[in-house]
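Appendix B, record 7
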Amino acid sequence: MSEWSKYGIHKGLFLWPGLWVLTAWLIFAFEHASGNSLSAYGLIPGNLGSWYGPLTFPWLHGDLNHITSNTISLFFVGALIRYSFPKVFDKVWVISLLAPGIILWFIGRPNVHIGASAWLYALVAFVFFSGVLRLHIRLLAQSMLMVFLYGSFVWGVLPHDPSISYEGHLSGAVVGFLIAIWFRKIEPIESLKDQKPILEEEVPWDDWKHPYERALDFEEVNPTLDTPSTRQQGQQFRYEDGSSPDELA
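Structure tokens (predicted):
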């Protein structure tokens, strides 16, 4: 496992997302096994009696499809943030859990709001805007992944279905955007950091000369070398008997 730690893979990577999934499913199982609905512990905007709503409503779900879609997505996105931003994961995780509910309490319709969608919207928005705001090539890849998997979330912040808490979705998206701005200067893990640009080594100008020019320079610093230029300036060529071509001529 130590070999994987440098890539951000460790035993605690799935701990918090896994605990949330387990807790949500235990609550859901208790509701259906006991026949007691816990919807009364949901969030009712503007109701002082529902002061606990921002903390409790993300753990409650209406049906099997609701909890399945939320838990799978939250586990995946949560693990992605735990992997990429271990330094700020705890803060992002808790703020994304509580802050959307607080905003929802002020702007939501006076109905009972339940489900972890607002929490999920905050996490997805954080991942998306973290890449966009930083112009970080590796985090931008994660941003594009969020667009590919959750691009339809854009419609979730619009009031298109009375049975869907678009106010919760909008609150989560706003929170995710704000915490992405707040933590924009925090570096991701080492394996995701942008590499420094590769700079050309400083090479002496002479090394960039044409090979022929460099050959001439080499002759200049080696005057004793037996080259055509040195033969003309130094001793003339002679045959074995000591005569030269000029003498024969």
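Remarks on this record: The CA atoms of residues 131 and 140 lie 4 Å apart. Residues 64-84 form the longest helix (21 residues).
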